[in-house]
């Protein structure tokens, strides 16, 4: 197995397990690592489906299998290549840093707290970040902005996603309906 650093430099397709978080593996092109976070261009059904950032302390296994190597060759033959999701200057120093950078390039994001007694999945836009948490403006499944703001502590966050196909549908809805995607 190549080291994480080597896989990141090569933007290799890898498989990731988070046994305490979910039962499913995650496959993606490894595009960034820090002491605390790992960034992937998430691959689902042979397409890149956004940028996903995971908390490294939740990751129980990162490997590059023969299947990953074969599928990477297939993807590249089909024109699916890593390096299109994250901004050119991208630092993974902390959740705060990642959120602040990504919010400049992507109007919507998904934040998740997958562990604990009340897991939380929120989709919307960050309003304000501090050293300890993010204040987030969410919207409902019917495309209406919530009146209430959500605060998520970085210490509990497990996943952040931007530029997914799921969010693209909502973004087009907001743009067509004239609903604001900029910070309030």
> Total number of β-strand segments?
10
Please state the structural category: alpha+beta
The span between the termini is: 47 Å
What does the average pLDDT come to? 89
Estimated helix fraction = 10-25%
Low-confidence stretches: none
Largest sheet, strands/sense/barrel:
10 strands, antiparallel
Oligomer: single chain
Overall outline = globular
Give an account of the 3D structure:
By secondary structure, the protein is α+β, with helices and mostly antiparallel strands. The chain is 22% helix and 37% strand. It has helices spanning 4-9, 66-77, 95-103, 165-177, and strands at 13-17, 26-33, 37-44, 47-55, 61-63, 109-113, 120-129, 133-139, 145-153, 159-162. The chain is globular, with a radius of gyration of 16 Å.
Looking at this protein, list some descriptive labels:
184 residues; alpha+beta; ten-stranded antiparallel beta sheet; 4 helices; 22% helix; globular
SSE map:
Blueprint: H1 4-9, E1 13-17, E2 26-33, E3 37-44, E4 47-55, E5 61-63, H2 66-77, H3 95-103, E6 109-113, E7 120-129, E8 133-139, E9 145-153, E10 159-162, H4 165-177
Antiparallel strand pairs: 1-2, 1-5, 2-3, 3-4, 4-10, 6-7, 6-10, 7-8, 8-9
């Amino acid at each position: 197995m190549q080291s994480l650093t080597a896989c990141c430099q090569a933007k290799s397709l890898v498989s990731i397990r988070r046994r305490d978080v979910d039962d499913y593996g995650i496959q993606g092109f490894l595009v960034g690592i820090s002491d605390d976070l790992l960034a992937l261009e998430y691959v689902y059904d042979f397409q890149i489906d956004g940028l996903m950032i995971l908390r490294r302390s939740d990751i129980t296994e990162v490997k590059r299998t023969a299947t990953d190597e074969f599928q990477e060759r297939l993807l590249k033959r089909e024109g699916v290549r890593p390096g299109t999701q994250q901004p050119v200057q991208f630092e993974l120093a902390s959740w705060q840093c990642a959120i602040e950078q990504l919010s400049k390039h992507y109007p919507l994001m998904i934040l998740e707290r997958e562990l604990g007694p009340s897991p939380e999945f929120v989709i919307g836009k960050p309003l304000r970040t501090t050293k300890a948490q993010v204040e987030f403006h969410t919207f409902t499944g019917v495309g209406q902005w919530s009146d209430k703001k959500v605060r998520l502590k970085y210490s509990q966050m497990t996943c952040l996603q931007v530029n997914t196909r799921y969010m693209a549908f909502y973004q087009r809805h907001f743009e067509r309906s004239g609903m604001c995607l900029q910070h309030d």
